[in-house]
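B., you asked whether I could sanity-check this one before it goes into the benchmark set. Here's the sequence:
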Amino acid sequence: MSDYDFDLFVIGAGSGGTRAARIAAGYGARVAVAEERFLGGTCVNVGCIPKKLFVYASHFAEDFEDAAGFGWRRPAAAGSDGGPAAPSFDWSTLVANKDREIERLNGIYRGLIEGAGARLYDARATIAGPHAVSVAGRTVTARHILVATGGEPSLPDLPGIEHAIRSDDVFYLERLPERLIVVGGGYIAVELAGVFAGLGVEVTQLYRGPLFLRGFDDDIRNALAEEMRKRGVDLRFNANVAAIERTANRGPSGGGIRAMLAGGGADGGDGEAGTAAGAKTLEADLILYATGRHPNTAGLGLENAGVATAPNGAVLVDAWSRSNVEHVYAVGDVTDRINLTPVAIREGHCFAETVFNDNPISPDHEDVPTAVFSQPAIGNCGLTEVQAEVRYPEVDVYLSTFRPLKHTLSGRDQRSVMKLLVDAATDRVIGCHLLDPDAAEIVQGVGIAMKCGATKAQFDRTMALHPTAAEEIVTMRTPARRLRRGEEAVAAD
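And here's what the prediction gave me:
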């Protein structure tokens, strides 16, 4: 008989933890899973799924406008002056329908876990020792422990920060604000700024650096900034918030926030850092902080097992997702490697294969396709231009900027950008970066090709699918420039 109550105890029923539990149970392991909040983790409840639903909602205002160029007309409103009826939006309907879908997905996750034969605890679990977990008022033992507790939104320490909301709170707002300040320059801040602007909110986005989306390709970052400004988002770079306060003058949406800026950008441009005495102010109904997330390990009891963590609380793991303690593992955002749902799922699956099927597999974190559901969206895979120039002696840059076919009739001023980076020595495609409404769908296929080591010549031999935006990927023939390590970019040979 086993010396342990369970072969595996998983703390956290998000994407990574659930996959690990299901696969391990399928190999005959006795598995327990504990989740203190909501099944499905960040992605299902306050991340990918509700965010994408909100992105869909925010597109319809533009779709209504674009339809006119294709012959569509709205009927005159009853009792109006004869003009076309304006579409209306109801925030509470969107939130209620979103909640219903999330509840359905919560039930699916419960079914996945219990259907695999695992024991599910709807309770907080903490580590009591290398093989011990405290849960539901008792201590159980496990041969292996998997930490999959995800991440939490971070808030800075500044006066009045209690008046701000976090990205998680967005999905439960009772009212749609009329004016919103978004603080942050990562993908969450960019996506939510686009969502609320599309829903008719007056949005100002503040970022402390000279350009948002640090780590993404510069051509794409600059092009997106231009597109967001066209859509009415007031982008202010090199701007910091020094303090937040409530104002007596509250709007219909229940707001009343004043942000004191410690940096520039007060005119919506790229301002320079200012002084406290000359700080500018912004007023809005609501201020949203999306300035990053941190691993959710506080109070988890990792120290009781001697598990090592990084300064930000991330569980330090090796290529097999194993911590410094032999039988304690971690996957997903809690490890702060690549914080994406498919990555967490893959890490959880690899863990279960390695530990419970004697099939050692380590997750591959190279060339992971990613998307930012901005407006328009970003899709990317592989190296940015800056990264490629460091790693390879010579890199050819292929770049295409064009107006999508749809907008030749809609009249909308929107540009798409397609970019490929190619190692000049081997002809292998090492980077793909897209800005287009369909960028996320396109880059998934490109990611397959890149994982197979496809060359630019193979891209060129692929027949184009016309008329699509994606055909640009296989029709770009002449490089825009060649990068040579340590030299200025030059026109390609």
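One thing to flag: Residues 185 and 212 are 4 Å apart (CA to CA). Otherwise nothing jumped out at me.
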